[in-house]
Specification:
Length: about 900
């Protein structure tokens, strides 16, 4: 009901603007305008305490969430989700943070049991998940693979753009305080021979406005990378027509980008781009030429943005619209002049906003003929928002450090600033080095990863403007979908801005299949859902009737870990019935419940592939300007564990039981399978072979290939007699791998009673999953060989014969709001003892700096136990939505 009210309020706002329209293009513009005001998006930025970490370290972070229409800290969502993902793309931990005034702070501990590599922090609000949805790459699966369409959609749902921050995590120092930057990656069983092939290149074209239109002059941007995504710079590219005649040429810059002009585009123009790379010639076709359409060219002067429009075969009324972060800034219906052409549209820059602006040419039916991103810099963000004084060139061991912070804007309302002071010697320069400014104005508005985004803000000269304009042109994605905003395409938000903690899900009859795959539930009559929350011996019970077999329930405010028990009963059954049912067979996991309750899983399940520059080694990076010798005293090595023995199968290393890809609580894994609709019955009633297949589906998936892979089941490290081949889909025979017979030792795991324990959650502790497959490398050439990655699933019982009763009904171990500890800062005001050791890398982390009425603050701390050059980094936002950035 609350969701419906929220949507109605947003629609009423759009409608109130719509009534002012005088024409069809006016009405579409008014809808877009109302959408941007009524349904703003949210953006996230995380400020971290350091640039790299070592196993055993703690990651301290501060989350800032802004709203797109105002640029200020959000007042929509009150909950922020932050996830730590492994280099392979598996989840380590997810935290739920309570936001006050649009900010929240937290911490992740990098346990010694993890492996080194480039880790990712991903952050979002539930409201953000309504936008930019797409499907994770996969091959089609039969409908009966999931319990309902909604559960299938939840599983494969992915997002074009969520906030992400990638950083290196190195081995734990062998000697305390000696920070040698070495990475020992997760050991793989299979090794892959280097391919001896010709060089590879991926060339993509981006016509300005989106299309090549016949009989017009058009500008085309391009981006040239190798197969791994590394930019190919200084490559000469020649454009030829269907007759082989050269019509244009260009050369890629250091980011592999360039642009060229095509004059008088021929209707029969089959244009090609040719270039040579390492003495190998390449040829790539340009996009097809459109017979009707609109060619668009955008340039900027000191005071205007000028749009030159060439229309061919367009008879309908068209208009030009510009918006910034979803908010309408300029609108103009277009009229042809006496010559039957459109005049150049001059848009005053003062009517626009600093940042990425989106220009759209559309007709009265909502068809988009051309659109273009362009960056406007009004220099209203140039003025420093904070000054920090008191830094010395170098500090002696245990020295006192005093810094003075001064804000230029003393208005307290809506302001927030975090501060990090660290040892510069152990920092790591990386390409993923964005700030609050670069993220909010640039990186969040464009597709994919923007390496070293600060480059575009270094200067406003022609070189930087050209590079920035090329970045705007090589985008095939729009954060703000104009046709949905104009109500030409449907938009229905799945989630509201979260104000409090909730649970939602559906209820089904136990042992009854969902006949109607399109429905989330197979109920014919509504029931009551009973939820029992247990924490530290305290219990709270809530009841919620279903609606179309689904439920949505506000929960108590909970911090830390708690237990949730879910059951359902007919609506005429009261508390006494639920109490009696819990006394009988409640801990019998082999019993069937009356109804089966499932929770909705809205969190993204898959990880995005890394851009080449997100996990590039330091040795491949250029030196940063202004870098001193202290920073370069360490080096980086990345290597796999040493291997001396190989198996006969021509590519298998010894099985290493110490480094699984995933370790997950058995009960949690079962809950995930059940809630994603992969399992529709209690754990004990799932066949063993089916359970292995479901676990493989959950954590490995289908690799987006019509291929087989085999999985192996182990019991506490001991293998079974055979390996089971698992084929996810029916694929043509030529796409399948021929089964390979493998001789395996017979297991020695005990008798029937011992074997039976591996089928009961009461005895099962964890699943250890081993695989050479890396989700971030989906589609890699390594997985196209005959040596398909295998999946080993190891069932682990509780140690020492321990037993923890499972439940007939659904039981969850969940996390409420994460509780963040205070950062420890030692006091050396009295001279420390001679044996005192202090190896801190982050000397001070303050998630919320307290300023006085004058906007001033004084920070005092003490150095670590060695001579140190410090780095100071302050980030935040003013009450007016202006980013605060200080890095020195």
């Amino acid at each position: 009901m609350k969701k419906d009210i929220f949507i109605l309020l947003a629609i009423s706002l759009v409608t109130s603007v719509y009534v002012l329209a005088n024409s069809d293009t006016d009405s579409l513009y008014c809808k877009v305008q109302g959408f941007g005001i009524g349904l703003p998006q949210e953006k996230v930025y995380l400020h971290l305490d350091n640039t790299c970490y070592f196993l055993g370290d703690t990651i301290w972070y501060k989350g800032y969430v802004t709203r797109s229409d105002k640029g200020t800290l959000t007042d929509l969502s009150k909950i922020l989700y932050v996830e730590l993902l492994t280099p392979d793309g598996y989840s380590v931990e997810r935290q739920q943070l309570e936001m006050t005034s649009g900010t929240a702070s937290g911490m992740f501990i990098l346990k010694d049991s993890l492996y080194a590599g480039y880790y990712e922090l991903r952050a979002y609000t539930r409201w953000m998940l309504n936008f930019g949805q797409c499907e994770y790459p996969h091959i089609s699966r039969k409908s009966h693979g999931f319990y309902s369409r909604k559960m299938k959609d939840d599983y494969i749902r992915d997002y074009e753009k969520l906030y992400s921050r990638v950083f290196p995590v190195y081995n734990k120092p062998k000697e305390e305080g000696r920070y040698t930057k070495e990475m020992t990656l997760r050991p793989m069983r299979r090794y892959y021979k280097a391919r001896k092939l010709k060089p590879t290149a991926v060339l993509r074209f981006y016509p300005e406005g989106g299309h090549l239109v016949q009989n017009t002059t058009g500008r085309v941007a391009l981006e040239l990378n190798d197969e791994e995504g590394k930019h190919l710079e200084h490559i000469d590219i020649t454009i030829i027509d269907q007759d082989g005649e050269k019509v244009s040429e260009c050369q890629t810059d250091k980011r592999g980008r360039a642009s060229f002009i095509l004059k008088d585009i021929s209707p029969e123009g089959k244009y090609k781009a040719t270039f040579t790379l390492k003495e190998v010639k390449f040829s790539e076709k340009l996009p097809e030429v459109e017979k009707n359409g609109c060619a668009l060219s955008v340039t900027q002067t000191d005071s205007t943005a000028e749009a030159f429009i060439q229309a061919v075969g367009i008879e309908r009324e068209i208009a030009l619209h510009v918006m910034h972060q979803g908010v309408s800034k300029f609108y103009l219906p277009l009229r042809k002049n006496i010559k039957g052409e459109y005049d150049i549209v001059k848009i005053p820059l003062r009517t626009l906003s600093t940042g990425v602006n989106q220009l759209t040419i559309f007709d009265d039916e909502g068809r988009i003929y051309a659109d273009r991103l362009f960056f406007v810099n009004l220099h209203d963000y140039d003025k420093p928002q904070i000054n920090i004084s008191g830094m010395e060139k170098q500090y002696e061991p245990f020295d006192s450090i005093t810094l003075c912070l001064k804000l230029t804007d003393t208005n307290k309302q809506g302001r927030s600033v975090s501060l990090s002071i660290r040892d510069r010697a152990t920092e790591e320069p990386i390409y993923d080095n964005g700030t609050m400014l670069t993220e909010m104005l640039l990186a969040s508005e464009v597709r994919g990863f923007v390496e070293n985004p600060g480059f575009y803000f270094e200067s406003d000269d022609s070189i930087h403007r050209q590079a920035l304009d090329l970045l705007m042109m090589v985008q095939g994605w729009r954060r703000y979908e104009w046709r949905k905003m104009a109500d030409v395409e449907p938009f229905t938000p799945n989630w509201l801005p979260e104000k409090f903690q909730t649970i939602a899900g559906c209820v089904n009859h136990a042992e009854k299949w969902n006949v109607d795959f399109k429905k989330a539930s197979n109920l014919k009559r509504e029931v009551n859902v009973w939820a029992m929350f247990v924490q530290n011996g305290k219990t709270i019970e809530l009841k919620q009737p279903t609606r179309n077999g689904t439920f949505y329930m506000q929960t108590p405010k909970i911090y830390g870990e708690y237990m949730l028990f879910l059951s359902a009963a007919k609506q005429d059954k009261g508390t006494d019935y639920i109490t009696r049912s819990r006394r009988k067979d409640f801990t019998d996991e082999e019993a069937w419940p009356d109804y089966y309750v499932k929770l909705d899983l809205f969190h993204p399940h898959f990880a995005k592939p890394y851009n080449y520059y997100q996990d590039v080694p330091q040795k491949d990076m250029p030196h940063f300007e202004g870098e001193d010798s202290v920073v370069r005293t360490s080096f980086t090595n990345r290597y796999m564990p040493a291997v001396t023995v190989q198996a006969k199968r021509g590519g298998l290393r010894h099985y290493d039981p110490t480094k699984p890809a995933v370790v997950i609580d058995a009960y949690e894994a079962y809950n995930l399978m059940a809630d994603y609709g992969l399992a529709d019955r209690p754990f004990y009633h799932i066949r063993e072979d089916t359970m292995c297949r479901l676990l493989a589906s959950l954590f490995v998936g289908d690799m987006n290939m019509h291929r087989q892979y085999y999985y192996e089941k182990r019991y506490d490290g001991k293998t079974q007699k055979t390996k089971n081949w698992y084929r996810l889909v029916k694929a043509p025979l030529e796409h399948a791998i021929s089964p390979v017979k493998v001789e395996l030792p017979k297991p020695n795991i005990g008798g029937y009673q011992t074997l039976r324990k591996y089928r009961l959650l009461s005895w099962l502790d964890k699943f250890y999953i081993y695989t050479d497959y890396v989700p971030r490398e989906q589609g890699s050439w390594k997985y196209k060989q005959d040596n398909q990655p295998e999946v080993i699933i190891d069932y682990r019982l509780y140690p020492d014969g321990q037993y923890f009763p499972a439940c007939r009904d659904r039981r969850y171990r969940l996390q409420g709001y994460a509780v963040c500890e205070d950062f420890y800062s030692p006091d050396y005001s009295r001279k420390p003892l001679p044996e005192t050791k202090d190896y801190r890398r982050t000397l001070l982390w303050i998630p919320e700096v307290k300023f006085d009425e004058k906007g001033e603050a004084t920070v005092r701390l003490f150095n670590n136990g060695k001579q140190t050059v410090i780095s100071v980094e302050a980030e935040g936002i003013t009450g007016k939505g202006i980013p605060i950035v200080y890095k020195k």
